[in-house]
Amino acid sequence: MPNVSKSAEPRHVRLAVLLTFLIGLGLPAGMQAQAPATRPMVEVRTRLGTMVVALYNETPELRDRFMARVKAGEMDSLLLHRVVPGFAVEGGDPASRHAAAGVALGQDQDTIGLPLTVVPGLIHRKGALAAAPAGDTPGLGRRSHRDRFFFVLGGPYVGDELDRIATRNAALGSPFAYSTEDRRTYAAEGGQPRLDGSYTVFGQIVSGIDVLDAIAKEPCNTWDRPMEDIPMYMRILQ
Questions:
Q1: Rounded-to-integer distance, Cα 166 and Cα 176, Å
Q2: Boundaries of domain holding 202
Q3: How far is residue 133's CA from residue 90's CA, in Å, rounded to a whole number?
Q4: Closest Cα partner for 176 from 159, 192, 155?
Q5: For residue 205, which phi and psi values (nearest 5 degrees)?
Q6: What total of structural domains would you count in the chain?
Q7: Phi, psi of 182 (to 5 degrees)
Q8: Is residue 119 part of a domain?
Q9: Is 112 a member of any domain?
Q10: What are the Cα distances from residue 128, in Å, to 52, 73, 195, 200, 201?
Q11: Most CB contacts within 10 A, which of 22, 192, 220, 224?
Q12: CA atoms within 13 A on the CB side of 66
């Protein structure tokens, strides 16, 4: 596994984590009162660099599921198997570990899933970690996939753009109210507000957003799978 040694601990990662604690993780307004050090921090190493993700305690089921998979080594060598520039980077499919080159991944439904959890202030800003939908299993309703997740890309939204999107989301059955801080975040960082209210956001990249940008530039096939695989290796930092 070139450039992703499980024993390596880049100095910039520890510095980034410390800095993150000091600035309150850049979390939504009203959430910084919780001690930042109590939020689990996960390192995600790839051939394109390292990201650090803070998991939200406000979404405990997906937080705990994600951490359990990391602790068990289940995430190691899984692929970031789908890249849609300007939209999202998806990973976590257990079938991706030994997948043949070029085949489509992320097609399975989760017939159990976890409850959809929409928390005010946890928006699909750039770098957000969110759960993929579980699928269309009759009787389950809208639920989150227990394994597959995605990192959010996307551009800025300014002016009355968010108001129009909020009206559209509400009409589709996914109402979501935006605070002043949410609006500032979307204007400054960008993201995918059309997803708000429909998916569970359970984490945020706090270091290595440039790595996500690099991943988004990787050439892909017609299934949106990178032509050169991007395996992940994870460990819990805090």
A1: 6
A2: 11-96+132-236
A3: 12
A4: 192
A5: -65, 125
A6: 1
A7: -60, -45
A8: no
A9: no
A10: 12, 22, 11, 10, 7
A11: 192
A12: 33
Torsions phi, psi for 18 (to 5 deg): -60, -45
Query: One digit per residue, pLDDT tens: the chain, 238 residues?
Result: 333 333 445 554 444 444 444 334 445 544 444 444 589 999 999 999 999 999 999 999 999 999 999 999 999 999 999 999 999 999 999 999 999 998 999 999 999 999 999 999 999 999 999 999 998 766 666 899 999 999 999 999 988 999 999 999 999 999 999 999 999 999 999 999 999 999 999 999 999 999 999 999 999 999 999 999 999 999 999 7
Any idea what the CATH number is for the domain that residue 158 is in? 2.40.100.10
Contacts of 207 (CB under 8 A, 6+ apart): 12, 13, 16, 17, 19, 20, 50, 51, 52
